[in-house]
Every structure is written in structure tokens, then in C-alpha cells.
Write a structure and sequence with these properties.
- By secondary structure, the protein is an alpha+beta fold.
- It has 11 helices and 21 strands.
- The strands form 6 sheets. A 6-stranded mixed sheet has the order 8-2-1-12-21-20, with helices on one face. Strands 7-14-15-16-13-19 form a 6-stranded antiparallel sheet, with helices on one face. A 3-stranded antiparallel sheet has the order 9-10-11.
- Helix 1 runs parallel beside helix 6, helix 1 packs parallel to helix 11 and helix 3 packs across helix 11.
- The longest helix is centred in the last third of the chain and has 19 residues.
- It starts with 5 loop residues before the first strand and ends with a helix.
- The model has no long low-confidence stretch (mean pLDDT 97).
- It binds flavin-adenine dinucleotide.
């Protein structure tokens, strides 16, 4: 396949989903992925290997604006970051598409309303076999059908905490999750959040989208194929070739269409590295509006509580999503973290013996506090020679502090007298998005609302780069829904015979 119909760069959430949707068209599709298949091995379920030794982290550095290197938790495997994800597959709220006024600024509107994406959310939930329960989440947007599978059940200790929070007036709801819990636990009694999945029960981009796409004879995958640049034809518009490095050799393919799906940081890097001014970068927007959610771990401790759960991550709270409950601005989403054990705590608290941390962790309940990061052109990914520079400017921290205060109060009322928090930094770019956004106006966005580059008609982007806002829910289901919408548009405009 040196001149396939379509080259898809990256086999993660965006790339694998679009490959899956385009596969039945019969078009010759070549997927180039920097990673390869994640093998089954003991480290996959070993918290010390994952959290203390960074066994799966890439051997690469990115740089902050002061030139300090850091090792990012950005993973290169078939399936991309979804191999490690918490499998929370939440839709954005309807309000997220219409623009939201926050304490520290405004989230802008999307080029379309929620209703436009709803059928694709529905399709994405079916593709990723999402488990959930409609009607429990107070901010849930309208849905055209119910979840096909019942929610992953609370474990005993978690059901107790859900009840305690209900009694203090909150409305915990079952997290929509892409995990077959029986299969997952049959391979090891561990949480799944941040644990990689060698096809053992997580509904990730490899398992649900890539592998089924590869059953079509017209779809091929090349691994260890790191795309370095896109090459334009003489007209400056068409992308003529994709250049990649594989096992030390530089290679080229000349597809009819290119779909860029290398993730929000790496997709921007590819466009910026492709020419001195960058591809699709007439207005200098590529790499800008980088967003990553403001995330804190919040740990509530109750000496009488016995957390004997294995996975923990089954409910969330959206009571503060659209407002602070007192007539003030929106705060965000709170969801359980995967169960935090001694070996996980030890990765941050290196001076405390692990057995003590293990004992403490039996008395804790662990949440993720998630607030919207607002798009800011000064928050950006750029290149300094070959170095990737991530100049992340956090925003909207008033909402983050407000959500921590609200949740701390609720946890104390629910009988957890000690509440500790830890803010995640740039080493955790898990929810990276926004660097090549869609829009209706080529002066403010590199891509049209279907993800097609305004200036390059045979270039599409289908990954978290395209998100206009980060909202305050996990990004994957929205990435998948947008990819399905882009795939339909490609089928209708490019693949009609
Ligand atoms: C620990 C963790 C937990 C998370 N939990 C959740 C969660 O519970 N719910 C949720 O919605 N989201 C979660 N996320 C985020 C989620 O995984 C991402 O939002 C999603 O995977 C983004 O999809 P993507 O297509 O943009 O990028 P990715 O899925 O990361 O895919 C990018 C792909 O591009 C490939 N690639 C990169 N560079 C190149 C190159 N130069 N050439 C060729 N290929 C390249 C990579 O190998 C990869 O296959 C989590 C992420 C992490 C790390």
C-alpha cells in the first residue's frame, strides 16, 4: 500500500474509531502507528511497576516554558492513551456546546449544538459497549437510547459511601464505563484506571475499534511507524505524501486523503514540523488553545471506614457541574478514582514506608476533582528545534478551588473528617485537547466543523486536538463521537463511487 486511499496517522481513540467507521467502505486504508500492540505481561497488573517505576512511560522528554525537561504520561501503543484510561465514557453536557460563563472566563460555543452530535454519541456508546444507567445524573443530556449494558456494580464499601453522600444531599450517579468487569477481574484483582489493558476486559480503542477494523482486508496497520511530516503538493494545498520513520528507515506513502490522529500534542507537532510556517497554520492557531483539565486527587479519611474494594471507580457527582449550588458559576465533575493502594501512594510519598501507606489506604475513599480548563491562545504546544515545548497556562482555578471546597465539605459531613488533596501537573497530560480546533471561521480555527483543514482539502484531523472546549468531563467519548461524524462526512463527500 504505497498509495492507499486513506492514511490514518495514529491508532488511538480518534484514529482507531475513524478506521473502524471507514473500514466497511472498502477504501484502501493504511494506519501508521508510532507504537505497537501492548503485550500481556505481569507488569500490566503490577502497581509498583506502573506507579513507582514508570514501566510504561515513554522514554522521552518534553520541556516547559523555562526549558525544564519532564517525562510526560503520554503513551504510544495501538489504542493510544486509551490503553491506560479509566474507561469513563461520559458525554459532554448539552450546555457545554452553547458556551458557559465561568468564574474566570468564558468557554466559547461549539460550531454546532449538542443535538448534532447526539446520534454519534449513541453510536460511540454502542461501539465501546458502555455500561451505565440513564436518568440518575442530574445534568445528563437528552439521549436517543438507553445504555445497552447495566452499570458496573458498586463494591460493598463503595455502596456505603454512595449512601453516605446521598444522605448529605448529593446525587451520586453510576459512571458510564467501558469495562467488562468479570473479564477484567479474571485476569487479576486490580483496578483498571491507569493500568494498561492487554485485551483483558477494558473497552479501549484497540479492542473495540482497531481490531475489528483490521478484520477487513482493505485495512492495514504498520507499527513502529513514527510520522515526521506531511508534504504538500506544488499547489501548496493538497497533502501529497506522509513521511515516517520505521526501524531507522525513512519511508513515504502518497495517499489520496490523510487523517491525522496522533493525539493533541503529537498531531500539532506533526503539523508544526512539516514546514517552517507549519501546515494548516495560516493564522498561527496550530498548537494553541492547549487544554488539559484541572485535576486533583481528593482523599477522604475515616478511621472507622473499611475500604475493602478492588476497583472503586463506579460513581460520580455532577451536582456542582452547572452551578455551585448557591447561584454561583459552574464548578465541575467529581468522580471516584481507581482504588488507591499503598504502592500507588508510595510513588508520591517516597519517605513513608509502603506498609503504613497500605494501612492508611484501607481507611480512605479517593476522588478525582475535575474542572474545565478554558481555551487560551497563549496556552500552547510549540517546537524548539526538535524539542516539544508545552507551555500550558492553567485557567479557571477559581472553579477548581470552589469544587474542592464544596466536595471537602460534603465528605466531612459524610463522616470523613480528614480530607487531603493533590493537584496533578503537566507530567499528566491525560486530558490534552484543543490544539487544532474545529470551527466555522477560518480566521480562528484551522479546521472546519467536520475536522477538514480549511486550507488543505484532503487533510482531516480526528483526535482530541479538535475539541473546542474541554468541558469538565473525560474527553474520549466526545473524541470518538466526533470521529464517527467525520467518517460519515468522508464517506459522503470523498468515497462516493
Ligand atoms: C491514565 C489515563 C487515564 C485516562 N482516563 C480516561 C477516562 O477515564 N475517560 C476518558 O474519556 N479519557 C481518559 N483518558 C484520556 C484518553 O485516553 C484520551 O482522551 C484519548 O485517548 C485521546 O484520544 P486521541 O485519539 O486524541 O489520542 P490517543 O488515544 O493517545 O492516540 C494517539 C495515537 O497516535 C499515535 N502516535 C502518536 N504520535 C505519532 C506519530 N508521530 N506517528 C504515528 N503515530 C503516532 C500513538 O501511538 C497513539 O496510538 C485517560 C488518559 C490516561 C493517560
Amino acid at each position: 500500500m504505497s498509495s492507499p486511499d486513506i492514511v490514518i496517522i495514529g491508532a488511538g481513540m480518534g484514529g482507531a474509531t475513524i478506521a473502524n467507521a471507514l473500514a466497511p467502505s472498502g477504501a484502501e486504508i493504511l494506519i501508521l502507528d508510532k507504537g505497537e500492540q501492548l503485550p500481556e505481561r505481569p507488569e500490566n497488573r503490577d502497581a509498583r511497576a506502573i506507579f513507582q517505576r514508570g514501566f510504561f512511560r515513554p522514554r522521552e522528554s518534553w520541556y516547559d516554558s523555562e526549558g525544564n525537561p519532564f517525562n510526560p504520561g503520554n503513551y504510544y501503543y495501538n489504542g493510544g492513551n486509551s490503553k491506560f484510561y479509566g474507561a469513563v465514557l461520559l458525554r459532554y453536557r448539552a450546555e457545554d456546546f452553547d458556551g458557559i460563563a465561568h468564574a474566570d472566563g468564558n468557554a466559547p460555543p461549539w460550531p454546532f449544538h449538542y443535538a448534532e452530535l447526539e446520534p454519534y454519541y449513541d453510536e460511540a456508546e454502542k461501539l465501546f459497549q458502555v455500561r451505565g444507567k440513564a436518568g440518575e445524573d442530574p445534568t445528563e443530556p437528552p439521549r436517543s437510547s438507553d445504555f445497552a449494558f447495566p452499570p458496573v456494580p458498586d463494591e460493598r464499601a463503595i455502596a456505603e459511601v454512595r449512601e453516605r453522600l446521598r444522605k448529605v444531599g448529593l446525587k451520586p450517579f453510576s459512571l458510564p464505563l467501558g469495562v467488562d468487569i468479570d473479564k477484567w477481574l479474571s485476569h487479576g484483582k486490580t483496578p483498571w484506571d491507569a493500568f494498561p489493558d492487554a485485551r483483558t476486559g477494558k473497552m479501549d480503542a484497540e479492542t473495540c475499534a482497531l481490531l475489528p477494523a483490521l478484520t477487513h482486508a482493505n485495512v492495514k496497520l504498520q507499527n513502529r511507524a513514527e510520522v515526521k511530516r506531511l508534504i504538500r503538493a506544488a499547489d501548496g494545498k493538497r497533502i501529497e505524501a506522509v513521511e515516517y520513520l520505521q526501524d531507522g528507515e525513512t519511508k513515504r506513502v502518497t495517499p489520496r486523503l490523510v487523517v491525522l490522529s496522533a493525539g493533541a500534542v503529537r498531531s500539532a507537532v506533526i503539523l508544526l514540523a512539516s514546514s517552517p510556517e507549519g501546515i494548516a497554520n495560516r493564522t498561527g492557531m496550530v498548537g494553541r488553545h492547549f487544554m488539559n483539565h484541572n485535576l486533583s486527587a481528593m482523599i477522604g479519611i475515616d478511621p472507622r471506614f473499611n475500604n475493602d474494594s478492588i476497583y472503586q471507580k463506579t460513581f460520580a457527582i455532577n451536582d456542582f457541574y452547572l452551578g455551585d449550588g448557591k447561584g454561583g458559576p459552574p464548578l465541575g465533575n467529581v468522580q471516584l478514582l481507581g482504588r488507591v493502594s499503598g504502592p500507588i501512594l508510595k510513588s508520591d510519598l517516597k519517605h513513608v514506608p509502603e506498609f503504613i501507606l497500605d494501612r492508611v489506604s484501607k481507611k480512605t475513599i479517593d476522588f478525582l476533582i475535575m474542572t474545565e480548563d478554558l481555551p487560551d491562545p497563549a496556552s500552547r504546544v510549540r517546537l524548539d528545534g526538535e524539542r516539544i515545548v508545552l507551555e500550558w497556562r492553567r485557567s479557571n482555578m477559581t472553579a477548581h478551588e470552589g469544587l474542592k471546597t464544596a466536595m471537602r465539605k460534603a465528605l466531612k459531613q459524610a463522616g470523613f473528617p480528614i480530607v487531603l488533596t493533590h493537584l496533578f501537573d503537566r507530567k499528566t497530560p491525560s486530558h490534552q485537547c484543543g490544539t487544532i480546533r474545529i470551527g466555522n471561521n477560518d480566521a480562528t480555527a484551522p479546521l472546519d466543523s467536520f475536522g477538514r483543514a480549511f486550507d488543505h482539502p484532503n487533510l482531516f484531523v480526528a483526535d482530541a486536538s479538535t475539541l473546542v472546549t474541554s468541558a469538565a468531563v473525560n474527553p474520549s467519548l466526545t473524541v470518538a463521537a466526533l470521529s464517527l461524524r467525520t467518517a460519515k462526512h468522508i464517506r459522503e463527500t470523498e468515497l462516493r463511487s
